[in-house]
Design goal:
Elements lengths: L2 E2 L5 E3 L5 E3 L6 H11 L3 H7 L5 H13 L1 H22 L3 H8 L5
Antiparallel strand pairs: 1-2, 2-3
Helix pairs in contact: 1-3
Length: 104
């Protein structure tokens, strides 16, 4: 069961992860999209038309109020992804393309 927060449009899911109320969108996902693409709040709304500007600003406010914890979670996720990619090695398709000189 979701837990309410002091942010009108943010609640914590069963795992304690902040999500936008009425969606499955995690605050961290919206923040990472903003970081990756440099999107403004307006552009976030264009890219996610099912979110209201109030939801977006609430998520961004939540992020800034919990910046250190969320940034740490982002860093851990990126480290994990990098490690998994390293362990997986080159894909068979990429190896074939590289052998044909089609991939650098």
């Amino acid at each position: 069961m979701a837990t309410t927060t002091e942010y009108k449009y943010i609640q914590l899911n069963d795992q304690g992860v902040p999500i936008l109320t009425g969606t499955t969108m995690k605050v961290i996902e919206l923040v990472m999209a903003q970081m990756a693409y440099g999107w403004s709040a307006d552009e976030l709304q264009v890219q996610h038309p099912y979110l209201s500007m109030s939801q977006i600003y609430s998520a961004l406010a939540y992020y800034w109020d919990h910046k250190q914890a969320i940034d740490t979670e982002i860093e851990e996720s990126l480290r994990w992804a990098k490690q998994v990619k390293k362990e997986a090695g080159i894909s068979p398709v990429a190896a074939k393309l590289r052998a044909k000189g089609l991939l650098v």
